[in-house]
Amino acid sequence: MSTTAGYQRIVCLTEETTETLYLLGQADRIVGISGFTVRPARARKEKPRVSAFTSAKLDRILDLSPDLVLGFSDLQADIAADLIRAGIEVHVFNQRTVAGILTMIRHLGAMVEATVAAAELIESLQAHIESVAEAGRALPYRPWVYFQEWDDPQICGIRWVSELIEIAGGQDCFSDLARAPDAASRIISDSGVVAARSPEVIVGSWCGKKFRPERLYSDPILADVPAVQRDALYEIKSPLILQPGPAALTDGLDALQCIIKEVALRFAR
Length: 269
Description:
Blueprint: E1 10-12, H1 15-23, E2 30-34, H2 41-46, E3 49-51, H3 58-63, E4 68-72, H4 77-85, E5 90-93, H5 98-111, H6 115-137, E6 144-151, E7 154-156, H7 159-167, E8 171-172, H8 175-178, E9 187-188, H9 191-196, E10 201-204, H10 214-217, H11 226-229, E11 233-235, H12 238-241, H13 246-267
Helix pairs in contact: 5-6, 6-13, 7-13
Domain Fe/B12 periplasmic-binding: 9-264
Protein name: ABC transporter substrate-binding protein
């Protein structure tokens, strides 16, 4: 499709919109990206980095003369407000569920008049999700999963992660907390709360730093937790699953599926 219609100069303040535009064949429209962008890898070589997550180089963004800036969630509200005051059009997505991720893709496709490509991408993602879900339903056992998004304080997984755990054949120990949109509401007060829910697998995905399972192994409160007893602690790199975009529904979901299948087969013996 010709890129003569829709927004022509887009700044993406988070990775998932960058990844989506590349997948839609609309990379030429992007003039600036987040410094945390790792997908696709070529974006870091091709596009200037103009923001972190809660901060941005306003002057640098304005120098790029964007006709649209894309953000995510209330955590970027201050950046959005500054850009709006500077006369820039801003759209802030707020997807927190698997369905919300697919809706974001549909809306973004419409913004760049790539509705057909967006529909095809969504169809492909839905087919992949259903394939993983079918395999998950066939598992002999559905293990209880504690997804740790942060270590200090302990924060359990956000809602789309909780949904992906269920799709992959697991059960989220903290599905009740996962419904909360903000991280503060997903803080776990102490390890005793984790121990009480007896997770059979623990998945660490500490945003921006390496998961250190030894911290969990050395916690005496968790000593009798099945996941610790049976060495069922794993890491999924945060860019694969904590960005609410295509990566979470492909590589992130696949990583969860591998972990849950392995643990399910072990616990079913």
